[in-house]
UniProtKB/TrEMBL annotation:
GO terms for molecular function: DNA binding; DNA-binding transcription factor activity. The keyword Transmembrane helix does not apply. The keyword Transcription applies. It comes from Pedobacter cryoconitis. This is GntR family transcriptional regulator.
Length: 224
């Protein structure tokens, strides 16, 4: 039997420093055409040697993020070259923008769920719908919000599209605190209970068009 070795890639100190500088640019610490601190200051700031700083600058220069002018210094060349992690971008997103993205995703995952749902998916969706209705009826706002989020996540999971699932989960996680600020009681959840049931029925029936439309109706109601 042939032995195989799995190689684990480890980041160098220069890679770590380059990431930290990239984050600082993403957060606006350094802007386009702004000069970075001199090498001794960077060495002190990151606790590394001169060779590490130079290698990190080289990495970022090669990626187009920085430009080095001999005898002058190192400048931010292009902040758009930064590939900011989605989770970090969502944390600083405007809630209205975030909510708009969530609504678009909800219609799409509803449509896909109608086409790809399994019996197990439907069981999970109905369970969360039941918990949502129960919490709404008992005026348990926080429980109701959590159940509502999990209800829609279960629909996303039924879509069968891993990218859609990850996107919806990433957005939904950041909506919870906003829901707690916006909704003062469970009345909106009670008002849309029947519409949510119709949504599940259309998914169960495999009617993608109706699932999309039912999801849009729910969004239209809560946006009023």
């Amino acid at each position: 039997m042939m032995n195989t070795t799995t190689l684990i890639s480890r980041k160098s100190l220069a890679d770590e420093v380059a990431e930290k500088i990239q984050q600082q640019i993403a957060f606006g610490t350094y802007k386009v055409n702004q000069k970075l601190p001199i090498e001794p200051e960077l060495m002190s700031s990151f606790g590394v040697g001169r060779s590490t700083i130079r290698e990190a600058i080289k990495i970022l220069s090669n990626s187009g993020l920085l430009r080095v002018q001999q005898g002058v210094g190192t400048f931010v060349e292009n902040s758009t070259a930064i590939k900011e992690p989605l989770s970090q971008r969502l944390k600083r997103a405007d809630f209205e923008d975030l909510n708009e993205v969530r609504h678009l995703l909800e219609m799409k995952v509803a449509e896909k769920a109608a086409l790809n749902r399994t019996k197990a998916d439907l069981v999970k969706i109905y369970e969360w719908l039941k918990k949502r209705d129960k919490a709404a009826k008992n005026d348990l706002l926080e429980e109701c919000i959590d159940a509502d989020i999990q209800f829609h996540i279960s629909i996303a999971e039924a879509s069968g599209n891993e990218i859609l699932i990850d996107l919806y989960k990433s957005v939904a996680i950041h909506m919870r605190n906003w829901f707690l600020e916006v909704y003062k009681d469970t009345r909106p959840f009670k008002e849309t209970s029947q519409q949510h049931k119709q949504l599940v029925k259309s998914i169960e029936a495999g009617d993608a068009k109706k699932a999309w439309n039912n999801s849009a109706k729910i969004i239209g109601h809560i946006s009023q």
